[in-house]
Each structure stands twice: as C-alpha cells, then as structure tokens.
Amino acid sequence: MHMVRGALVAASFALLTACAVGPNYKRPPFDTTAAYKEQDGWKPSEPNDALDRGPWWEIFHDEVLSGLEGQLNISNENVKLAAAQVEEARALVRQAQAGFWPSVSANASRIRTVTADTHPETVTSAGISGNWDIDLWGQIRRSTESDRASMQASEAALASARLAAQAELATDYFELRAQDQLQIILDDIVAAEQQSLKITENRYRVGVAAKADVVNAQTQLLSSQAQQVNAPLQRAIFEHAIAVLVGQQPAQFSISPAPMRTDVPTVPPGLPSVLLERRPDVAQAERQMAAANAQIGVAIAAFFPSLTLTGSDDYKGDTISHLIRTANRVWAIGPSVALSVFDAGLRRAQVAQARAVYEQRVDTYRQTVLTSLQQVEDDIVTLRVLEQRGIIEESAVKAAREAETLTLNQYKAGAVPYSSVITAQTTRLNSEENALTVLSSRLQGSVAMVQALGGGWKGLPRH
Fold this sequence. Notes:
Radius of gyration: 37 Å
Number of helices: 9
C-alpha cells in the first residue's frame, strides 16, 4: 500500500506541475467601422418594432406566420439534423474529458492445462488492472479544449440552421401572401374588364361602337383571365415549400388565402461591432478557429515523452473457494515512459498541418465577418430604396385607377376610342403588379435584414 500511495502522490505532483504546450487562444482582432456606410437616411426603429431575439417574426403581427414558425422549430429536418450534430459534439467532449481519469478493468479466468508429461492443472485467477495516462504536457487538456470549442461551433451551426430555416419560411410565406394579393388584383381587373365588355357590346348593338371594339374588349378580357387562372400555380408551389419546412407532407397541408399586409416593420441595423457577437455563423467560425488553435498544442505535445501509471491486483490459485487470500495475491504498480525518437518528420509535419489549419480558420473567420457586414449594408440600402420606390408605386396605382375611370367615361361619351380604355386598363394592371412586387420585396428584405443581424434586436445599441 505504501507503493500505491507513493505512486498516487507522484502522479498528483506531475499533474500539478504539468503544463499545456502550444499557443493559448486569443481571438484575432477585427476593427469595425463606427457605423454602416448605407445607414444615413435610414429611419430609426419604432417602439413597437423592438422585440426579443427569440420570436423575431412577431414584428409582423401575423398569427399564421407565428404558428408556422413554432412548428418549424420542432419539425424541420435540417434543424433536427443540426441538433443531432450538437449532441454528437457534446458526446465527443465527454469522451475527451474521460482521458483525465484512470481506466480500470476487472478480469477473471479459469484455465485447465493438460500436457503429456504432467497431470492436468487448473488455474483460477481474478483481479483488477488500471492505466492512467498522466497529462503531463497538456495533450488531453488541449484535446478537450478543441472538442469543447467544436461543440460550441456546432451549437452556433444549429442556431444558424434554425435562423436560416425561419427566414426561408417567412420569405416563402410573404411570397405566398403576395400571390393571394395578386389573385385579388386579377379578380378585380377581370371584373372591370367584363363590365367594359358589356358596355362595348351595348354600344355596338345601338350602333355607336365598331365590331373591332367588341373584339378588342374580348381579347383584353381573355388575356386577363389567362393570368387569373395561372395565378394559383405559384401560390401552390410556395405552399408546398412551406409544408416541407415545417416537416409536413404537402398533401396534408394548406394555408387559407388572405390579403397582403400593407405595412413593413423597421429593422434597426445597430452597430457593426455588435454584429460580431450576434451572428451565429460568425460565432461558428470563431469557435472553429479556437478548436484549430488547440489542435496545435495537441500536435506539439507529441514531441514530449508520455507518462503512464499502470497497476494490477490479481489472485491466482487452483480452486475458486480459496482464491481470495494473501498467498494467492500478485500485484504490481509502476510508471512507464515512452518517447518516439525517430518518425521521419511525422510530428513536425503534423504540427505544420495544425498551424496551417488554424490559419485557414482565421481567414474563414475574417471572410465571414466581412460577408456579414456586406449583407447588412446591402439590406440597408435595399430597404431604403424600396421604401422610396414603394411611395412612388402607390401614387402610380392611384393615378392609374383614376385614369382608367376617366378614360372609360370618355369612351362612353364617345370622346376617345376603345384602344384608350385598353391602354388605361393595362397601365392600371401593371401599376398594381409593380406596387405589389415592391411591397413583397420590402417584406422579404425585412426578413433578410433580421437574418443578417443574427436574429431579433432587443437591446441592440444604435449609433
């Protein structure tokens, strides 16, 4: 027992004095600008726009969208895959941490030996044995550090996958609602053109309109009806996409039609420096960089000798009933040291590889940050321009509707040919579609801005 106690004391002393070789991790600095370039002229967030980072979609105040987003978190297969990868990474951390402790195994055997010159002999043995790899140079610690950083990178990847799926769902949902609104517009246009056709037919019957006017009115109506019939196609495609996102079969899923919302919430971009702490893909790249840095220490530790403490305590005898007694006991304990003296440059190459991987991770991190800043800048200018264009398009719609009414009245009075009515109706339809496209793009742009910012923005400081 004195030897065992002495070995444990020696191992404890070795652990206390051990050092972890390799560079300690420090995140490379990345100096960001004080504000976004495209932020000038961007209006500040309204008080009711600022919500928690969690259910960011609630800024749109759409119960159907909120319900779909809630289903996505528990049913989307890509999100579930990322969650399983997180569990795998956590298990790897536990595996690495197990290396800090000794491994102990029990054994038992009963062997009967028969030879030509001796009587048969039976040997019974039972005991325990153990091995303890002393982490003298920090190889296990660096491995654990790397696995823990990889686990955190997996958690960030899960957050990124969840956010991407949420944003894709919201985008498809607003595309679907745009198709609902287009259907309303086309139904209204068809109804107006049917009325125009009746007016033209009545005028033709009383001899104040030419047959060509009736044919032109019929042609215009048929063209609009063709668009009206085709409108549900794109809606069905978006509905099918949403079904898959929430983990349902398209045949068992449907969304009731509803008009398009007319307001677009404002998303404050905040400060560029805050973006580095909020985007999950930036966090993932940073944690991958930390994991690669720890692997350098793992590779360097291979240059140093490994220290292993081994021991066993066995009982051997010819009978099971009297096996456990002092006379049958055989025990051993002691350290072993191993050092590779020649490997043809293998370890140096492994260290060089680890350093090269780390440099790759640094470059990936910096590029991810730059891309994230670019995306926010793009979304700011896109939303600003679309807002200005939306105001113009709404004015164009009002003017086109008024022009259509005036032109139809002039045609009834015989002041203008029917071709003017067709032109006015076509202009109105184009204006309605353009305004709807801009509104849909603004809503999708808001979703893209939320995604670019890494989620919601409650408490996000602004310049």
